[in-house]
From TrEMBL:
Superkingdom: Bacteria
Xref: Pfam families: Imm8
Species in which this protein is naturally found: Paraburkholderia graminis (strain ATCC 700544 / DSM 17151 / LMG 18924 / NCIMB 13744 / C4D1M)
Name of the protein in question: Immunity protein 8
């Protein structure tokens, strides 16, 4: 059985190690997760939006309903808890092969090869 491992986390929107939101109850930023099989080299990229309910409400105030795919919804800014929540989810995923793992992970984050057709 193959298990997923979080091998890196970054953001194209903010510098994670120094970022602090102006409003801890209303923020959102994209994270890029490098995830691969445990005990193997290499990783694929998955993207997830980290945001608060207030940010969703402000961002989509003109709509009556929105889909929440590829989002980690948090209630306050705590980078250690965000990273821990992501890592716990990733490392809970197992499958017989990488493709099966990637399909499970793509429920949480947009997989770089999700719609790839060779």
């Amino acid at each position: 059985m193959m298990r997923a491992k979080l091998k890196g986390i970054s953001s194209p929107d903010v510098e994670l190690r120094t970022y602090w939101p102006e409003d801890e109850a209303c923020f959102g930023f994209l994270v890029e997760l490098q995830i691969g099989p445990e005990n193997e080299k290499g990783a694929d990229l998955f993207q997830t939006m980290v945001c608060t309910p207030d940010w969703i409400k402000a961002k989509y105030s003109d709509r009556k309903a929105v889909w929440g795919r590829h989002m980690l919804i948090v209630f306050e800014y705590d980078l250690a808890e965000i990273e821990s929540a992501i890592s716990r989810y990733v490392e809970s995923c197992t499958a017989d092969d990488w493709h099966g793992l990637a399909l499970k992970l793509s429920r949480f984050g947009g997989w770089e090869f999700e719609d790839y057709q060779p």
